[in-house]
């Protein structure tokens, strides 16, 4: 049994990563979501949460002891030094979680979905990178709808994320997601058929 190779799936906010990821899951591909791993490492009782509270104070906790993500996000988006501190703490822990989950894959290839695939260095865990891209105007519209956010908030997140050129520079494959879901499904089916022909993620 060959060990599955790992496909990194990334894209800017509102590009439709989740929809693409779901299409791959529907094809039976094992998928690990870095955002889920990022949530697991800060669950109550995990060492990362204690360190975050020690550093930022109890105001980043909700009444039930869970992390108050909105409060923490507000702090780290306002201060690049604090964001770097948090990333230095969390990225290695998230990397460990991801590796453990990827190791359980039984499909010919597995997918690591991560909005920060390039920035966090998580692309080093993968053999191939698929970037989901979309026109910026569409990204902003989708995100405002999904998160009930203002255009300004979405623009701020877009600025904080790796720029499009940097993401595309790491891409082996690019999926421009600017049409409807049935088109997207057929594109994913086409990519999936291609990926099944690859050994170790390379043609």
TrEMBL record:
The keyword NADP does not apply. Pfam families: CoaE. ATP binds at residues 14-19. Coiled coil: none annotated. It catalyses: 3'-dephospho-CoA + ATP = ADP + CoA + H(+). GO terms for molecular function: dephospho-CoA kinase activity. Its EC number is 2.7.1.24. PROSITE patterns: DPCK. Pathway: Cofactor biosynthesis; coenzyme A biosynthesis; CoA from (R)-pantothenate: step 5/5. It is found in: Cytoplasm. Keywords: ATP-binding, Coenzyme A biosynthesis, Cytoplasm, Kinase, Nucleotide-binding, Transferase. It is an enzyme of class 2 (transferase). Belongs to the CoaE family. Catalyzes the phosphorylation of the 3'-hydroxyl group of dephosphocoenzyme A to form coenzyme A. This is Dephospho-CoA kinase. It comes from Pseudomonas zhanjiangensis. The gene is coaE.
